[in-house]
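Private note to self, pasted from the team thread so I don't lose it. Backbone tokens:
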């Protein structure tokens, strides 16, 4: 099986070429810059290289020269735009056998690759394919030797400007259509906000593990694992006897929980029974929320109104302490980049900047929590939604992140 290496800084271009070639029975490799491409030339010994002329840091001509130093017999086909054809002529001096223009035709690409690989190396070295390339370039109006044109031969710049302006307008129209289409797709795919009855009488926190939703009942000492279906059906219920889990978060193979009654933070092994493996004294007396950022544990405290960042050691040491924007912080969540918190007094949600003071980047006030009878006690995020817990009304709510941001901009809420 012939092995073809594609060197192009556009992942979509690499993927497209790979798919085309693999459908025809070729093996493909990809690299997104010259350095990575040269490494694969050395280590993988491809039968053919398809090389983009325009690459970051090291351009296609430079990469071509280095490829020929590594192995002068490797055939190289250049990817180029119409405006770069003169550079393709220059590349013939360094051993390019042919070129592909963007946008390319799938059948022509396959035909070119097959022809190149089926042509004996001795014929390539005699210049048979190079002569075909030069003939092809000449049909584009480009001579073999690039000679600077005389003033009389200079192109009509007015015509060029008009052509460029027309091309720019077309690009703007295409971009606008793509933007409108993408927005329509996003809006149609996003589900509406929804509310679900909580299985517990005192729901206090919620967590998403990438597949399942988890909720806890601090009073009845239970944690529930839910399917992400239309009813949030329960997969499993965990009953505790010495712990009142007011908050939970996932950290790798472990579930962390905290108990406002004991003032402790607990670690459970993530298996069928969530066995307790460690416990730590909270830095304050009323831990009320937990979040995991991939490296550190975060906790908040309803008594001190503080947010703590912990190091994972044998003491769960506190690295930093931040003032919470809440008068009663009741939950924390991590979205992959930022920390979020909520306040059960104001029923507000805060998205924090990860700066020296953990300042508030934006805040949200949701309509389902406009009643004084509601009480926001926890939150979590998945890819498209924020999920919240209303302890007073025994509800779990799903809110569209997209709608929340739009509502904030236009002040719907």
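Design output:
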């Amino acid at each position: 099986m012939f092995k073809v290496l594609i060197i192009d800084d556009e992942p979509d271009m690499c993927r497209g070429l790979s798919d085309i070639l693999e459908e025809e029975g070729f093996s493909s490799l990809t690299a997104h810059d010259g350095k990575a491409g040269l490494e694969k030339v050395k280590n993988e010994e491809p039968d053919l290289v398809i090389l983009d002329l325009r690459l970051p840091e090291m351009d296609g001509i430079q990469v071509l020269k280095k490829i020929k130093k590594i192995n002068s017999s490797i055939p190289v086909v250049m990817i180029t735009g119409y405006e770069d054809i003169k550079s393709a002529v220059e590349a013939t001096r360094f051993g390019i056998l042919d070129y592909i223009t963007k946008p390319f035709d799938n059948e022509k690409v396959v035909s070119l690759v097959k022809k190149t690989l089926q042509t004996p190396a001795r014929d390539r070295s005699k210049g048979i394919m190079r002569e075909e390339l030069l003939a092809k370039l000449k049909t584009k109006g480009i001579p073999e030797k690039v000679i600077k044109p005389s003033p009389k031969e200079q192109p009509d710049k007015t015509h060029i400007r008009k052509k460029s302006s027309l091309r720019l307008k077309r690009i703007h129209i295409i971009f606008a259509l793509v933007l409108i289409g993408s927005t329509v797709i996003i809006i149609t795919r996003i589900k509406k906000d929804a509310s679900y009855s909580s299985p517990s009488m005192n729901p206090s926190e919620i967590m998403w593990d990438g597949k399942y939703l988890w909720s806890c009942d601090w009073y009845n000492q239970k944690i529930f694992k839910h399917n992400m279906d239309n009813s949030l059906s329960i997969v499993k219920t965990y009953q505790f006897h010495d712990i009142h889990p007011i908050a939970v978060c996932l950290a790798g193979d472990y579930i962390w929980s905290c108990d406002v009654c004991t003032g402790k933070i607990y670690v459970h092994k993530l298996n069928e029974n969530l066995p307790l493996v460690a416990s730590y004294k909270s830095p304050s007396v009323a831990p009320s929320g937990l979040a995991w950022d991939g490296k550190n544990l975060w906790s908040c405290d309803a008594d001190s109104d503080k947010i703590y960042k912990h190091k994972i050691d044998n003491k769960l040491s506190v690295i930093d302490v931040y003032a919470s924007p809440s008068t009663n912080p009741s939950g924390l969540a991590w979205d992959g980049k930022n920390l979020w918190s909520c306040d059960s007094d104001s029923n507000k949600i805060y998205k924090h900047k990860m700066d020296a003071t953990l300042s508030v980047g934006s805040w949200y006030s949701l309509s389902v929590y406009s009643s004084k009878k509601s009480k926001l006690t926890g939150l979590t995020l998945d890819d498209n939604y924020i999920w919240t817990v209303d302890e007073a009304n025994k509800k779990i709510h799903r809110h569209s992140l997209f709608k929340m941001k739009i509502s904030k901009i236009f002040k719907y809420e």
